[in-house]
């Protein structure tokens, strides 16, 4: 006869909850910095708004997907964060245009896909420069891009997601991701060309 005390169901749930919270803490430490950079660029440097969006995404992730593996959390988190960002952008657009609720708001000014773009390999943000530049200079250059180009570049180049996963996160076609990413690289090369006297701007 087993005389060892049995763990109650509530104790088991408490352990599982504690484990999920510990994993979330480590996960947050890993992605918070990059997510904040992305949101600050997308909100034109509004640090408070960026913090709120990132925190809300973490809360939603833990609330709805605590049982998922840490690996699964990465695309889920950025999908949630993208939803939060788009909701915020829509509210800002309606605030700027009080009667915009009567029509659909197009938040993206570069959604036309370019045909026959070859999917470019994921770049390290520093790879297209022959000399080191500061993270602030790269962030400033990213902030000058349209928001969807920012997202495509940072999800692919900084987070390392492939085109398919990036498209799922951004809720657009893979062709759109290729277009946004291609234009982002061209825009960054142009913006940072003065820091790279040997590159001669775009390699296109």
From TrEMBL:
Signal peptide positions on this chain: none
Residue ranges of coiled coil: none
EC assignment: 2.7.7.6
GO biological process, one term: DNA-templated transcription initiation
Gene3D superfamilies noted in UniProt: 1.10.1740.10, Winged helix-like DNA-binding domain superfamily/Winged helix DNA-binding domain
Keyword terms of this UniProt record: Nucleotidyltransferase, Sigma factor, Transcription, Transcription regulation, Transferase
Record domain RNA polymerase sigma factor 70 region 4 type: where: 136-185
InterPro entries: RNA_pol_sigma-70-like, RNA_pol_sigma-70_dom, RNA_pol_sigma70_r4_t2, RNA_pol_sigma_r2, RNA_pol_sigma_r3/r4-like, WH-like_DNA-bd_sf
SUPFAM superfamilies xrefs: Sigma2 domain of RNA polymerase sigma factors, Sigma3 and sigma4 domains of RNA polymerase sigma factors
Protein name: RNA polymerase sigma factor
Originating organism: Acinetobacter albensis
Lineage of producing organism: Bacteria, Pseudomonadati, Pseudomonadota, Gammaproteobacteria, Moraxellales
């Amino acid at each position: 006869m087993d005389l060892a005390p049995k763990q109650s169901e509530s104790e088991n749930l408490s352990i599982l909850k504690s484990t999920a919270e510990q994993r979330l803490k480590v996960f947050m430490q890993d992605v918070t910095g990059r997510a904040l950079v992305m949101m600050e660029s997308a909100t034109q440097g509004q640090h408070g708004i960026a913090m709120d969006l990132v925190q809300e995404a973490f809360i939603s992730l833990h609330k709805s997907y605590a049982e998922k593996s840490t690996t699964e959390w990465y695309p889920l988190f950025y999908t949630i964060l993208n939803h939060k960002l788009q909701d915020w952008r829509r509210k800002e657009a309606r605030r700027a245009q009080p009667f915009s609720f009567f029509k659909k708001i197009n938040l993206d000014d570069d959604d036309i896909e370019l045909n026959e773009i070859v999917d470019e390999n994921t770049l390290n943000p520093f790879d297209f420069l022959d000399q080191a530049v500061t993270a602030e200079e790269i962030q400033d250059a990213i902030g000058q891009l349209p928001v969807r180009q920012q997202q495509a570049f940072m999800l692919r180049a900084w987070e390392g997601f492939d085109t398919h996963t990036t498209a799922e996160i951004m809720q657009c076609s893979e062709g759109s991701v290729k277009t946004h990413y291609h234009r982002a690289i061209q825009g960054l090369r142009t913006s940072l060309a003065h820091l790279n006297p040997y590159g001669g701007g775009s390699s296109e």
